Automatic annotation (TrEMBL):
SUPFAM superfamilies according to UniProt: L-aspartase-like
Annotated InterPro entries: Fumarase/histidase_N (IPR024083), Fumarate_lyase_CS (IPR020557), Fumarate_lyase_fam (IPR000362), Fumarate_lyase_N (IPR022761), L-Aspartase-like (IPR008948), PurB_bact (IPR047136), PurB_C (IPR013539)
The protein, known as: Adenylosuccinate lyase
Organism: Galliscardovia ingluviei
Residues in Adenylosuccinate lyase PurB C-terminal domain copies: 362-482
One Pfam entry name: Lyase_1
């Protein structure tokens, strides 16, 4: 079916260049295209090559544990412990992982159609090449049966993913999130005494301070980030259906539980999962993604709040030299970084929520849906990282506008209705005359009218407060009616 009229087809479809012929490849995802620079730190740990590099680490460390044992020599009869040179050589497969390695793996996978088998063959090739590097007497080519010994692919995959995700979170995502919290905390302290008209339901309400409102976000975010910093990353290495079946059939004398635990905990720095089907159950991933999604939602709330403060004039934006706000309205500076952050947080949440929901289900002892799904963890965190970057940039480009803040407060003296009616209640309870129906009297005075400083003072004077209370109330202004907001900042 023609998707364009014939004339269009002739002028565009036939003669135009194919974008897919351009090198380097054109990206489908904006994370790998337009936003590549900002998302790149995630790709270092969560991308196809990063996963394969980590798979090599896991395969190699497993070989080293089997060959060198846990203090009592090799675990496998017929296998001598690796020399230091041999271990360095094997480990260099991961540390020297490069474009050439990626090509070699792709060549194997083109034949095997199995990504982990391709890694096994990649290591086999390296064992074959070893004598040319380590000398003719090198025994490594004979040790090919040691590669992937007693492993199912998921033994390698789950450990690799756990390490990839741990590094991406601890080295990239968490520091970026902490940078936002630190920025907010610094400004909460700076503006802890700066009064601000609060709005509940979008209507003027009891004033607060700008610093205290920022502190609320600091407190919320810190609670979630602490959970993420304490996150467990579970891993398993227990064979095709989690029974150590192949291990015990081949080498019944080995304490495989101890070996498995040593490998996951000590060698790879993860938390040992003793009980699984073929797959690690991914519950820890669901926990992590739910918490990050929660953080994303808090940040989305922040981005929208700041966007609305900018719209109100409470925050002013610093124009970027040379930048265009609107293509047609020259006066404008648009809050685009906050809008970009909102959109990317939404995309991240969509992916994270899907990952958290689907990764925890697998038919019987394994299906492969998790394999395909987990390939999107990098995108889920990448969209969040991009949002963090834009949010921080946006926050750094705004400052409070005192004139607007003061004007808002001065135009809303009716917010003092609350302290006056509450003081009337306290006076009534102490038996002072004329303090009945405090709420109704204040409402009568203030609702639906523009109220001035004079109106408030006159009203206070009509009431029989004791002198100290009357003075305290008379001294109140919308700008000073902020309770102990500034003190509360210390709790963030
Ligand atoms: O260790 C094994 O392989 C055991 C096997 N289970 C599997 N476990 C892990 N990976 C497997 C499995 N099966 C296939 N594959 C390979 O996974 C890749 C899936 O590709 P994609 O859908 O792109 O994520 C793709 O490369 C697949 O070839 C079983 O039979 O239980």
């Amino acid at each position: 079916m023609d998707i364009m009229p014939a004339a269009f087809t002739a002028s565009y479809m036939v003669v135009r260049m194919k974008l897919t012929d351009i090198t380097p490849a054109i990206a489908v995802s904006p994370l790998d295209g337009r936003y590549q620079r900002q998302a790149a730190p995630i790709a270092e740990y969560l991308s196809e090559p990063a996963l394969n590099r980590e798979r090599i680490v896991v395969e190699v460390e497993w070989m080293i544990l089997l060959a060198n044992g846990m203090g009592n020599g090799s675990l496998i009869p017929g296998v001598q412990p690796f020399t230091d040179e041999e271990m360095d050589y094997l480990r260099s497969l991961a540390t020297d992982f490069d474009a050439n390695s990626i090509e070699q793996l792709a060549a194997h996978e083109a034949i095997t159609h199995h990504d982990v088998k391709a890694v096994e063959y990649f290591i086999d090739d390296a064992l074959d090449r070893a004598p040319s590097v380590l000398g003719e007497n090198c025994d490594l080519p004979r040790l090919k049966p040691l590669v992937h010994f007693a492993c199912t692919s998921e033994d390698i995959n789950n450990l690799s993913y756990a390490r990839c995700i741990k590094q991406a979170i601890e080295l990239v995502w968490l520091p970026a999130a902490e940078a936002i919290v630190n920025h907010l905390a610094e400004h909460a302290e700076q503006y802890k005494d700066m009064p601000l008209l609060a709005l509940t339901h979008g209507q003027p309400a009891t004033p607060t301070t700008l610093g205290k409102e920022l502190s609320v976000y600091v407190y919320r975010l810190r609670r979630q980030l602490e959970r993420i910093a304490d996150q467990e990353y579970l891993g398993k290495i227990n064979g095709a259906t989690g029974t150590f079946g192949a291990h015990t059939a081949a080498l019944p004398q080995v304490d495989w539980i101890a070996v498995s635990r040593e490998f996951v905990e000590t060698r790879l720095g993860l938390t040992w999962n003793p009980l699984t089907t073929q797959i690690e159950s991914h519950d820890w991933q669901a926990e992590l993604y739910s918490t990050i999604s929660h953080v994303n939602h808090i940040l989305h709330n922040l981005a929208q709040d700041v966007w609305m403060y900018i719209s109100r004039g409470v925050f002013a934006q610093v124009p970027v030299k040379g930048a265009t706000g609107s293509s047609t309205m020259p006066h404008k500076v648009n809050p685009i970084r906050f809008e970009n952050a909102e959109a990317n947080l939404e995309l991240s949440c969509a992916l994270l929520d899907s990952l958290a929901a689907t990764l925890v289900e697998s038919r019987w002892q394994r299906d492969l849906t998790d394999s395909t799904t987990q390939r999107n963890i990098g995108s889920a965190l990448g969209y969040s990282l991009l949002a963090l970057d834009n949010l921080l940039g946006g926050l750094k480009s705004i400052h409070p506008n005192n004139l607007v803040i003061e004007r808002e407060l001065n135009e809303n003296w009716e917010v003092l209705g609350e302290p006056i009616q509450t003081a009337m209640r306290a006076a009534a309870l102490q038996g002072r005359a004329g303090m009945d129906k405090p709420y109704e009297k204040v409402k009568e005075l203030m609702r639906g009218h523009a109220i001035s400083k004079n109106d408030v003072e006159r009203f206070i004077d009509t009431l029989d407060f004791d002198e100290a209370t009357a003075q305290r109330l008379r001294a109140l202004t919308p700008a000073t009616y902020t309770g102990i907001a500034s003190t509360l900042v210390e709790f963030d």
